[in-house]
Amino acid sequence: MATEFTTPPDGERIRVENGQPVVPDRPIIPFIEGDGIGPDIWNATQRVLDAAVERAFGGKKQIAWYEVFAGEKAHAAFGEWLPERTVQTVREYKVAIKGPLTTPVGGGIRSLNVALRHLLDLYACVRPVRWVRGVPSPVKRPQDMNMVIFRENTEDVYCGIEWESGTPEAQQLIAYLMDELGSKKIHPDSGVGIKPISPFGSKRLIGKAIRYAIDRERDSVTLVHKGNIMKFTEGAFKDWGYEVAQEQYGDATISEDELWASHGGKLPEGKLLIKDRIADSMFQQVLLRPREYAVLATPNLNGDYLSDACAAQVGGLGLAPGANMSDEIAFFEATHGTAPKYAGQDKVNPGSLILSGVMMLEHLGWGDAAERIQRAMEQAIEQKVVTYDLARQMDGAREVKTSQFASAIIENL
Known about the structure:
Elements (H helix, E strand, L loop, with lengths): L14 E3 L2 E3 L5 E5 L5 H20 L6 E4 L4 H7 L5 H10 L1 E4 L13 H8 L4 E7 L15 E7 L8 E3 L4 H13 L11 E3 L4 H17 L4 E6 L8 H16 L3 E3 H8 L8 E7 H10 L6 E4 L1 H14 L7 E5 L4 E5 L16 H14 L2 H16 L2 E2 L1 H4 L6 E2 L2 H11 L1
Parallel strand pairs: 3-4, 3-5, 5-15, 7-13, 10-12, 10-13, 11-12, 16-17
Antiparallel strand pairs: 1-2, 6-7, 6-14, 8-9, 14-15
């Protein structure tokens, strides 16, 4: 493939009006194939997406793919891990998709994924978690898991500030906290960190989760926090969530307290339930009572843990889709790493990126193509035509390559 920026292909840009994408019949969509296994899983994904769109719309709609660069390919071609041209192109075209990116060693960037989120203000990490029929699972009823996690992407530990143990800065801050602010005793040799959580960041994330739940007729949004301990950060996240529900969506939502006080615990028709759970309790709930939760809204770190823990119940990160979103931009991605030891071997499961592509098609309003891929992938897995990660867990499976798994999905479309 090309290793230089080219002119955009024939097609039209996606626009955003009133928070919704306006999608032409031939939208230009930038992609980054990714590092390590990225080229293998991207090639498989592109084939599946193109075939599904063709089958669904008979040539009346088509994606005009536009390659842009980040990671190792960008560094080799341009001497930059994340060219400004890539960031600007995604900003202009509103929807993009990418494979996994490596973390540069000594490149001055802590994480390319984090850098993209900050530069494009992709404040919502959206992770749907549902079982694909036939996938081996460590739990008895994986089919009960069907929730969407909205994780705040720009605050909490993602913009945390820390000072190393024993440094003058850490000692100075400890002394200030104890002597000037009367804080609890802190060991003088402690490392110290600060995690900011703001009403601005929290409210826009929670508002997006509520809007999503209303639009898709989900029955609840749960605010996940550790507010019993951290009252003015995590506890405030919860409080700001209830404020958003009341102030912006008061006609459509009802709190759990009101549900029991006025409705005997029965959700009124057409209402969205807003509730909250302590983070550690939520881990138990997703194992024991997942059917009671539809959409979760979380600060950054809680969502990081929970999204992977939920994915583990339905087959792991190899089949976990995800997207990072702002008010205008939607950037879909594989949720796993680059697995460099398998690079170029046509071996790994492309399911995460394919299902992220399904999310992208849904975002475009091309639901028929999205549903076809969902059904076709389920059928391939039920036929036990799977990549090595699933084959080793299934009796009688036929292990296939990355490209062959994509072909099996296409045959089932």
